[in-house]
Specification:
By secondary structure, the chain is mainly α. Helices cover 63% and strands 3% of the residues. The longest helix is centred in the C-terminal third of the chain and has 30 residues. It starts with a helix and ends with a helix.
Length: 477
């Protein structure tokens, strides 16, 4: 495929994914994390200064009448005693352009959260396009497109990253960009995208370091580590400068590196579950990231139970950078389990703290599944169908939900974090929300079965006329 055609297809993937994200992002639900970050963005875009002194909080009360959103854990005194929102640098900076356009070009006055949500959609769609452009270098177009659609719409990329401007749209974009740049041997860009990722969540630096150093050691040449390390270090310094401007601290974690931000980052806020004390509590926290009924990555993305063993079996066949990136994601998950409660809070469907490891593992999973045994075609398709149907229901339901996190006026598809070990949102929704979820699941199963059947017949026809069936199956997806 020539470069122009490849870029064109990547752009089409970006536009198509973005269109779905924009059509389904929540219109009436406030998430306190995104709210505090985007209020800061709005303030910088409209006044040129980050200080929230004198901000008229009553002016945003119209967003959900009758509710009072307490932002005291997120807004406190920063540099010079000024009131600021304690968020990571990337979460605040990302939506400044959108709020500037909204205020100065579109003429909207006052804060509203749509520009922040649109920014989340843009960043996540861009990440999906970069992922497509990465894997299409190694598999046929149909397979690359199918993998991208699964990642974009059958995982919390849809219900979390593209729903609100958390830290995750920034980190997911950073990791996707690192994969794209590493595949093209552009190690300066690996450092740049890694710097973007650590602006979202500082411990993404672990992934950047492992990717650069790991490839350098494997290839026995220092270029990847040096180039990626230099640029990401510059980005780290810039994050420190930004933090000093807002918070009076040189900690590059931004608001997360300063009280009360540090307490928020570790879950130790006094009103939410914490990791607890002792080895057993810590072990349960790590396990929760993987297998908790309402937060575990393996519960909401069960296709990994098939794909990860394939990655292990075909480890030596995978591109070296994809192996190192997957290891970086695993180490990131271990760090995440050490510093934060596994639930990630309330107010979303699926998991969110394992989105970064998922993005790290995704390229290796696609490369490993190129020769998926025929007996696994339908099991994989049906597992994907069920998760796709569930996330479709969640996105459509949350789009029209009204409320604050876990206290909605109208039903939302998610559960509060306190029941993460005892309940599952999909099971509870099947019992409580009527036929809507059943219809989404049924429609997804029918579509995935039809597509899989078409691909299998095409492969069989190719084998009859002497063409390699495996190649045709890859071409079909």
């Amino acid at each position: 495929m020539n470069p122009l055609a490849l870029r064109t297809r990547g752009f089409v993937v970006f536009v198509g994914t973005l269109a779905v994200y924009l059509a389904t992002y929540p219109r009436h639900v406030i998430n306190a994390d995104a709210f505090s970050a985007t209020v800061e963005s709005f303030r910088i875009a409209t006044t040129g200064k980050p200080w929230l002194d004198g901000f008229d909080w009553s002016a945003v009360a119209h967003i959900i009448p009758g509710y009072h959103l307490d932002l005291s854990p997120w807004v406190a005194a920063g540099a010079g005693g000024h009131a600021v929102a304690f968020r990571s640098p990337g979460a605040t900076i990302a939506s400044i352009p959108a709020y500037w356009i909204d205020a100065h070009l579109l003429g909207h006055h006052g804060y509203h959260f749509a520009p922040g949500n649109v920014t989340a959609c843009l960043l996540t769609a861009l990440a999906m396009a970069l992922f497509f452009l990465t894997v299409v270098h190694h598999v046929r177009f149909g397979a690359a497109l199918a993998a991208t659609l699964v990642l974009a719409f059958a995982t919390p990329m849809w219900s979390v990253s593209a729903a609100f401007l958390w830290t995750h749209p920034i980190t997911v974009l950073g990791i996707a960009g690192m994969a794209w740049a590493a595949d093209r041997e552009r190690w300066w860009l690996v450092g740049l995208f890694g710097g973007i990722g650590l602006w979202g969540r500082l411990h993404v630096a672990v992934i950047v370091a492992i990717l650069g150093l790991g490839v350098a050691v494997w290839r026995r040449r220092p270029t990847p580590a040096v180039r990626a390390g230099v640029v990401s270090t510059v980005m780290l310094v810039l994050a420190s400068v930004y933090s000093h401007w807002l918070y009076g601290s040189w900690n590059p974690a931004g608001g997360y590196g300063s009280a009360p931000g540090e307490a928020l980052a570790t879950g130790n806020t006094g009103d939410s579950p914490v990791i607890g004390h002792g080895a057993v509590a810590l072990l349960m926290n790590h396990l929760g990231l993987w297998i908790a009924p309402d937060r575990g990555v393996l519960l909401f993305t069960p296709v990994l139970l098939i794909l990860l063993p394939l990655v292990v079996l075909r480890w030596r066949e995978l591109p070296d950078w994809s192996r190192v990136l997957a290891v970086g994601g695993l180490v990131y998950a271990l760090v995440q389990g050490q510093i934060d409660g596994f639930t990630g809070g309330s107010g979303f469907f699926g998991y969110r703290l394992m989105l970064e490891p998922l993005m790290c593992a995704a390229p290796a999973c696609v490369f490993a599944v190129r020769r998926l045994p025929r007996r696994l075609h339908y099991p994989v398709a049906m597992v994907v169908a069920v998760t796709w149907g569930a996330f479709t229901y969640a996105a459509l339901t949350e789009r029209n939900s009204v409320g604050l996190r876990d206290t909605p006026i109208h039903p939302v598809p998610y559960l509060p974090m306190e029941v993460a070990w005892t309940h599952n949102a999909v099971v509870d929704d099947l019992r409580a929300q009527g036929p809507d979820l059943w219809l989404c699941l049924l429609a997804a199963v029918v579509v995935c079965y039809y597509v899989t059947e078409r691909w299998r017949k095409r492969a069989e026809s190719a084998a009859v006329i002497g063409e390699p069936a495996e190649e045709i199956a890859q071409a079909a997806g």
